[in-house]
Each structure stands twice: as C-alpha cells, then as structure tokens.
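Appendix B, record 7
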Amino acid sequence: MGKPEMQRALYEQFSRIMFSICSRYTRDRMEAEDILQQGFMKVFTNLKSYQGGSFEGWMKRIFVHEAIDHFRKTKRSVFGASQEPHENLQVDLQDVIGQLTVEEILEKVNRLPEGCRLVFNLYAIEGYSHKEIGNLLRVTESTSKSQYARAKELLRERILVK
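Structure tokens (predicted):
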C-alpha cells in the first residue's frame, strides 16, 4: 500500500473524531475544516516522530494544538477582565442536565464567549491543567481558572434557562 492510500485510510478512520475536536474550538464550520486539514498535514508530516502509546491520543494532541495555533493567529485577545459569577442558583442541576441531550449541552458550550469556551474545552474535555492551558494560550494560570469558573457559571445559567 502506497503512502497516499495509507493517508486516505488514516483520514477516513479518524477524520470524524478530529473534526469534532476542531469544531469545539471555532464556531465556523469552514474554520474547523481548515484546522482539520492543517492537523492532518501535521500528522502526515510527523508520523515518524510517533513513539508509541495511544495513536489516537497522539493525534488528538496535534489537533488541539493546531486549533490553539489557529486561534492565536486569527483572534484578538478574548481574555479581558473576568466577570464575577452571579449568585449561586439553588436548583438541582443534575435533574436538569439529565433531561438534556449531548447535542444540547455541546451547543450551550459552543455559545460560550470564546475565552471561556477555549478554557472549558481544554480543561473539562481535553484534560489539560490550568498551568498547561496558561502556557498554551499565553495567559496566566489564574486567568485560566477564572475563565473556567465563568464558563461553568454561564453554563449553569444557560442550562437552567434551557
């Protein structure tokens, strides 16, 4: 099997998973597709550097970094002064969340302000620490923490409004 066939097989196997990652970091499908293509170019270029472990995990890391690089190149700073969260809402969120579909939850995450959305995705979904997020986004660790707190509060409010 030649290189183009191997690349096509790799793309066909992982493109849906990697596109979902790209989509979490942008609101525009065309931008997500651009990130997807750039990510696969990096994967194909760097296949020789893969050193074992989870191949899918290795790829996901490339796509997350590609999405962050794209964000840095195309966006202004979205990490302004953090707003204090509203008073805690005294409702059992578990009951409300249990009634939402995964698509509804992801749609609410996607509507977060960009800084909050980036940090929420990196921390809650990708599993990066606030220190790692600070390094990736070139912000302080405390900015990452405050953006995450704000994201959680906004999600809580939006989920309760449903």
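Remarks on this record: DSSP finds eight helices and no strands in the chain. Residues 18 and 60 are 7 Å apart (CA to CA).
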